[in-house]
Design goal:
The structure holds 2 protein chains of 2 kinds. By secondary structure, chain A is mostly beta strands. Chain A is about 0% helix and about 55% strand. In chain A, strands 2, 4, 5, 6, 9, 10 and 11 form a 7-stranded mixed sheet that branches. Chain A has a 4-stranded antiparallel sheet with strand order 1-3-8-7, with no helix packed on it. By secondary structure, chain B is mostly beta strands. In chain B, about 0% of the residues lie in helices and about 55% in strands. Classes of the chains: A mainly beta, B mainly beta. The interface between A and B is medium-sized, with 20 and 22 residues.
Chain lengths: ~110, ~110
C-alpha cells in the first residue's frame, strides 16, 4: 500500500507571499492531520480533517488554513508568509488512532 | 494545557546495550500512546503503540506503560548505530477525536 505523499518537497518563498501544500493520504484513510515542526518548538498540531470537515484545530493564527476534498486529499494554505513560518510541514493520515506521516514539505521564507 | 515531557538528551549508549527512553504526560485521561523515530532530515516513523498498562514487545523494542504514574517508556535492546535518531513520544488525551500531543523528543546516539 502506498504511503502518504506530500508535494512539493521543498519550497522557497519571500515574506508576504502565500503558499499551498498538498497531501495525499494512504488509501482508505479518511483523517488527515497537519503539523509544523521547528527545532525550537518541536511538532505542533495545526489542524485535522475528517470526511471534508475540520475536526480539530491547533493554536495557530488564521493565516493558516486547510481543506479536505472528497477523495481525502488535503491542502493547507499559509497566507502573508512570515520569516517564522520557515519549518517542516508534515501531514499524517490515519484510519484509527495510529498516524502515519508523509515525508514533509520544507518551507523556507526569505 | 496537555503536556508530554521527554528528556531532550542526547542519550549516549554503547552498541549492544539497552537504551531506555522515558516520557511523562500530564493528562490522566490519556488513552493511547505512541513512539515515533525520526532520523535527521526525515519525517517521524511510527515504531510502537501501546494502549493498556504493562509491556508490549516488538522485536528489539519494548514499550512500557504505567497509567497510575503517568509515564510511558521505550526500551531498545541490543542497540545499533542505526538506532541513532530522535525518539518522539505522542499521547492521545481521550479515545476518539482528539489530536496527538507530541513531546519534543529524546536524541539517542549509539556509539560503535
Amino acid at each position: 500500500k502506498a504511503g502518504v505523499t506530500q508535494t512539493p518537497r521543498y519550497l522557497i518563498k519571500t515574506r508576504g507571499q502565500q503558499v499551498t501544500l498538498s497531501c495525499s493520504p494512504i488509501s482508505g484513510h479518511r483523517s488527515v492531520s497537519w503539523y509544523q515542526q521547528t527545532p525550537g518548538q518541536g511538532l505542533q498540531f495545526l489542524f485535522e480533517y475528517f470526511s471534508e470537515t475540520q475536526r480539530n484545530k491547533g493554536n495557530f493564527p488564521g493565516r493558516f488554513s486547510g481543506r479536505q476534498f472528497s477523495n481525502s486529499r488535503s491542502e493547507m494554505n499559509v497566507s502573508t508568509l512570515e520569516l517564522g513560518d520557515s519549518a517542516l510541514y508534515l501531514c499524517a493520515s490515519s484510519f484509527g488512532s495510529e498516524q502515519f506521516f508523509g515525508p514533509g514539505t520544507r518551507l523556507t521564507v526569505l | 494545557q496537555k503536556e508530554v515531557e521527554q528528556n531532550s538528551g542526547p542519550l549516549s549508549v554503547p552498541e549492544g546495550a539497552i537504551a531506555s527512553l522515558n516520557c511523562t504526560y500530564s493528562d490522566r485521561g490519556s488513552q493511547s500512546f505512541f513512539w515515533y523515530r525520526q532520523y535527521s532530515g526525515k519525517s517521524p516513523e511510527l515504531i510502537m503503540s501501546i494502549y493498556s498498562n504493562g509491556d508490549k514487545e516488538d522485536g528489539r523494542f519494548t514499550a512500557q506503560l504505567n497509567k497510575a504514574s503517568q509515564y510511558v517508556s521505550l526500551l531498545i535492546r541490543d542497540s545499533q548505530p542505526s538506532d541513532s535518531a530522535t525518539y518522539l513520544c505522542a499521547v492521545v488525551a481521550y479515545s476518539g477525536n482528539t489530536p496527538l500531543v507530541f513531546g519534543k523528543g529524546t536524541r539517542l546516539s549509539v556509539i560503535a
